[in-house]
Amino acid sequence: MLKGSFPIKEFEGLRTPFYYYDMALLRSTLDTIKDIFRDNPNYRMHYAVKANNNPRILRTIASYGFGADCVSGGEIRAAVDAGFKPSHIVFAGVGKSDEEINLGLDLGIARFNVESAAELLVIDELAGKKGIVAPISLRVNPDIGAHTHANITTGLAENKFGINYEQLPGVLKLTLGLNNVKFLGIHYHIGSQILEMDDFAALCNRANFVTEKIVRAGVDPGDINVGGGLGIDYHHPNHLDIADFKSYFDTFRRFLQTRPGQLVHFELGRSLVAPCGSLISRVLYVKEGTSRKFAIIDGSMTELIRPALYKAYHRVENISSDEPEEIYDVVGPVCESSDVFAKGVSLDKCHRGDFIAIRSAGAYGESMASGYNCHPLPGSFFNE
Ligand code: LLP
User: Fold this and answer.
1) Angle, to 10 degrees, between the axis of helix 168-177 and the axis of helix 197-216?
2) Would residue 374 be called left, alpha or beta, if left means φ above 0 and alpha means ψ between -120 and 50 degrees?
3) Which of 38, 87, 131, 367 is paired with 13 by a 20 to 30 Å CA distance?
4) What is the pTM for the complete model shown?
């Protein structure tokens, strides 16, 4: 079976499960984007910190001069600690607390992506108390269904996110009438793990329409934040280890109309960090059932919840063995029947103690880990 190459000798003696990060792959991913941006001077990247907030990953991304897209005060602090400049931080989220808004105001972050009229009024009030003007974008729900898992599509009218597209004129009018907020642009996000470029083209068309409406109302439309969402190939981590950034950015270049000097913000998370991470576990037991064989590993849904939560596919490889393949259900030790990584997969014959790599786990893996069953949080290993 084709497998990734891992420095297994260095894994001996490490406590499993842990996250393995291929830092060379992360850097070549970031280089790819930087190269594309060289030809598009009005493009700005704000990495979605929620995908992976490991300090070393954050520091590496910050060192490329990219900004950060945060959804909590905790993420804002993590981003600043890792070297992101507050003036390169945008802050989204439907439920920003007063404490979080005040933190953003005190640090002087670049933008509050506002999700409702109610939130707008609170930001105006808190900024007013400090005698400052808060920089804001309005997050518009573009009512576009992306071809992805129902739990991670966000751009449909019935989602909780953003301001309804029909309500935008009213909220924009409200914004322009307030003294302590300044309207600087529109924010969108249609979902995650999107591989159909047509979905992004549809977003561009909607954004063009909105910009035109704002301009016609005599208002400066500010910049356009198109959110994140570019997917990766979870099935072929050994062939396609860098997301298709070219098609993605080409789509925006082709379909998004921008005015001279108008900036376009991107908030990619998964496509930057998913491929470089793998969850490394060991086989605890091979259990022969009546109709199937279980590889019971020490990694579980507490380190990587995506398969249990979204039935997400991650490629599983036995990186210790090269004996002929056998069919296994790969399961974790947690007391939940959803604690399953893969059913009926071919793995090189498993033995107690073998290392198992669960691939493409660099996004929404470590950052979504929990302490359920009193499991300690996973450690990390960086291959520079
Ligand atoms: N911007 C906004 C406003 C977002 O809500 C998100 C992700 C992103 C950017 C980054 O999207 P990305 O480029 O990573 O697709 N836990 C789920 C994914 C949740 C995504 C939430 N929002 C998963 O494991 O698939």
Assistant:
1) 50
2) left
3) 367
4) 0.96
